[in-house]
Write a structure and sequence with these properties.
The chain has 346 residues and is mainly beta. The chain folds into three domains: 7-114, UDP N-Acetylglucosamine Acyltransferase, domain 1, CATH 2.160.10; 141-219; 223-345, Immunoglobulin-like (Sandwich). It has one helix spanning 8-19, and strands at 23-27, 30-34, 38-39, 45-46, 53-54, 60-61, 68-70, 75-76, 83-85, 93-94, 101-103, 108-109, 116-117, 126-127, 134-135, 141-142, 149-150, 162-163, 170-171, 177-178, 185-186, 192-193, 200-201, 207-209, 221-233, 237-239, 249-250, 255-267, 272-284, 287-290, 295-297, 301-302, 310-316, 321-327, 332-345. It has a twelve-stranded mixed sheet, with no helix packed on it. Strands 3-5-7-9-11-13-15-17-19-21-23 form an eleven-stranded parallel sheet, with no helix packed on it. A hairpin with a 4-residue loop joins strand 33 (310-316) and strand 34 (321-327).
Length: 346
């Protein structure tokens, strides 16, 4: 049996060989491994790579090259040219990828290329991956895809938006969702576009879908669904709203809808009534017209106690609205309306 003895010379040779590939500097509570790194701050580290910069207290760059952290308690795993900046808090993370950037608080980018979470309004946002996606409002998420945007400059946008994927989708609606597809635009609060191509929401709670347009304009050829509600007391009337109190269905400029309407009424005793009809409404240069004029409906079927309830359909309002008004009986009645539209703009 041959026994090899590890000599002191062999150990020194091994150490020299290791140092030929990596420089390691441990200073107090800091760790700096790699080539041409820049490390400053407190309790932070660069664990590998080259040309990385970490100026954030309690922050870590695990590897890669030309990555930069200038925020506390933040992390970059790997990749090239990723950066995290924050004026105050930080607590951000980028997993990997190329030229991804975070300038916010509690932001996360998984990977991808040139994705961005930015502005002082950004807070607790996430981009899973993809390319050139951007978030500029709070509590929002982009799963992936290409050139999707949440925020922009729309006054309605206050965050909580979602774009699951797709390309060139824009979500500027408060708490609005785009499932995927391309060139969709969400502007309505609580609105949803499940996917498709070039759909647009402009009303509260609107659900819109399109498979394309005539001349590349959002919402030019689409279908939508709206749900409205309110309560009538005794024989008083009450307009039905999308949020139950103020939000109406808005027609787009130079738009025409053909609509199907179903309405359900019920009181506390269970007495019920149903209404249904259809019609056409249009807007031209800010003037909204219900073809055939205002419609007054009685139930197509009802319990005897609800037989006297009525519903009117009219056009008007400051935003080119389709207006539903309910008329109750001697009880307190709850009303729910579903409106389904076929929409065209010219």
């Amino acid at each position: 049996m041959k026994i090899k003895l590890i000599t002191l010379a062999a150990i020194i040779a091994g150490v020299l060989q290791l140092n030929a590939f990596a420089a390691t500097i441990v200073t107090g509570d800091q760790l700096d491994i790699g080539t041409s790194q820049s490390l400053s701050g407190s309790y932070n580290s660069i664990a590998g790579g080259q040309l990385d910069t970490n100026n954030g207290d309690w922050s870590t760059i695990a590897g890669g090259d030309n990555n930069i952290i200038c925020a506390p308690e933040s992390f970059i795993g790997a990749g090239n040219g990723n950066y995290i900046y924050a004026d105050f808090f930080g607590d951000d993370a980028i997993g990997a990828g190329v030229q991804n950037g975070i300038n916010s608080v509690f932001g996360f980018i998984g990977s991808g290329y040139d994705n961005l979470i930015t502005s002082d309004l950004s807070w607790a946002d996430a981009i899973g991956g993809g390319q050139e996606n951007e978030i500029s409002v709070a509590y929002s998420t982009i799963g992936g895809g290409y050139e999707n945007n949440i925020g922009g400059t729309n006054a309605n946008s206050s965050g909580y938006g979602v774009i699951a994927g797709g390309y060139y989708n824009t979500n500027n609606g408060y708490i609005a969702t785009i499932g995927g597809g391309g060139y969709n635009l969400a502007l309505g609060t609580w609105s949803t576009i499940p996917g498709g191509l070039q759909a647009q929401t402009i009303s509260y709670g609107q659900l819109a879908y399109s498979g394309g347009s005539f001349v590349l304009r959002d919402g030019e050829a689409q279908t939508s669904t709206y749900v409205l509600r309110n309560v009538t007391t005794n024989t008083n009337s009450a307009e039905l709203f999308l949020d139950g109190s103020a939000e109406r269905m808005n027609l787009p400029a130079d738009g025409t809808w053909t609509f199907d309407l179903i309405v359900t009424e019920r009181d506390a005793s269970g007495n019920s009534a149903g209404f249904k009809t259809n019609g056409v409404i249009k807007t031209i240069s800010g003037t909204t017209t219900l073809l055939g004029g205002t419609m007054t409906l009685t139930p197509f079927i009802a319990d005897s106690a609800s037989a006297s309830t009525q519903l009117t359909i009219s056009a008007g309002g400051a935003s080119s609205n389709l207006i539903l008004t309910a008329y109750g009986n001697a009880s307190t009645n709850r009303w729910v309306a579903t409106v389904r539209t076929s929409e065209v703009r010219f």
